[in-house]
# Entry
Amino acid sequence: MPEAIHHSRRALAFLSEHCTGVAWERTSAYATLFWSMSWAGDVKQVREELPQLLREGSARGDAISLRLLGVVHIPYLSLDRPNECIREVEMALQTPARMGFDLQRYGAMWELVDSYFYLGDYSRARNCLLEYWDAIITSFFLRVWRTLLVNSLILRGRSALACWLDSPGDGLLRAEVEEYAKRLKRVGSPWCDPMSKVLRAGLAVGQRRINDGARLLEEASEEFERASLHAYAASARHFCGLLRGDERGRHLQQMATEYLKSQEVVNPEAFMRAHLPGKWAQ
# Structure
């Protein structure tokens, strides 16, 4: 992840110097940069740099496309303002933009789903995702940008798990969680392997295998950390600690909270729920 951030910044520097009139390439480079920082959990840095990006986009008539990057919700959620984020995304969707419709829709869906996760409204998050799913999963952008396909699989798995933990008797939801855990494992990326373990941990928790769930979450947290996905690592540590309920568990929860406080996250518990949604403490 640090390498992706570094390469994105180099690409932006090149475009700024040699291709100042090409809005699409700059928007694409900015999207890669901010997606990378958001996945890495660099919340404070995203919050500091995003306003300047949006001002530049407004000056060149590209503000709406940038508004729907899929990461603008991170500053809102870190400041405990999810409803404001939802209102602004819905307003932005009503304004025609210059970027292709599919990518706008994808970014808006991502922002709305994570905002509903933050609020603990898992059924609404899932309905939002399913509303767009068929169009998104067949989109040209998912064939070109593998990162978007990976994130789509992760969103689908997280939404299914969150809803299944509320209704563990739902066999269809359980089968969906199992399916996406397997699909993510087959992808074999540093992001997908720990997320597959998160889904398996959720299945264990829903089946009252609490120790197995805690173990898988702790393993996932270590793998997220190695991949520099610090916010996901913190979230996995927190819920692992919640399940353990012992001294080790309290230490893991403290580590998670301290990291998010270092990023100036106002409501760490809700922010972690946006990353790993669901009723982990059954």
